[in-house]
Amino acid sequence: MRTIRWRRIAFWFTFSTIALIVLALGWLWTADLGVFKPQLERFVTQELGREFEIHGEFHVDLAQHTTVIAEDIRLANAEWAEEKDMVTVGRAELRIDLWSLFNGPVLLELIDIDDTNILLLNPGDKAPNWEQLIEAVTDENDAAEEPGMDVLFAQIDIDRLHVHLESVERERPLHLVIERLAQSHREDDYLNLEVRGSLDGRRVE
Predict the structure, then answer these.
(1) Helix (H) or strand (E) segment spanning residue 134
(2) ω before 123 within 30° of 0 (cis)?
(3) What are the CA-CA distances from residue 3 to residues 10, 11, 16, 17 (Å)?
(4) Cα–Cα nearest to 90, from 176, 177, 162, 183
(5) What are phi and psi of 26, to 5 degrees?
(6) The pTM is what?
(7) Which is the most buried residue in 66, 95, 170, 185, by most CB within 10 A?
(8) What does the pLDDT look like over 94-145, one tens digit per residue?
(9) Quick one: pLDDT at residue 31?
(10) Strand partners, 161
């Protein structure tokens, strides 16, 4: 009788555990993970040492073709700069083949970025406003011989990108405008590339 009772307890415990795992996976698969926006903002802020905020919508659709969409993204400038933001992005969308994370190479199916402004400042008497970010994402302890992860970019769409550079090493500011940059990966492994913009008023196509 005791043996049957323990078997029944073990059965229901195992069944309940499996059911909870299935429910958790189902929630992850269907829930909008955008609710974790505050955690993401804190993580990026801590890693970069600059305030990172997503003022607009933030959605994560976890599926085979996982999609991340963020709107009104802002990265703070250096403390000494008069302008508050170093980088602003109106909208960004990233779509990735989830299974490629496990069997490689990582396939980024879409990178779509709209209405981006980047302000680069090098006053001479202070470190350039981008130096801290480069140091934050560079790990000096990484072994040079450590292999990297292969990444394929299927489609890249960048619209209305503005880069403004002011440097003590230049007589006047440099202004780069990318009206449109489109890259697509063809089936024959070649790339289609379209670029339209201007550099200090001179057309670039």
Answers:
(1) helix 131-137
(2) no
(3) 10, 12, 20, 21
(4) 162
(5) -65, -40
(6) 0.78
(7) 95
(8) 998 888 877 878 888 999 999 999 999 999 999 999 999 988 887 655 544 4
(9) 52
(10) 116, 178
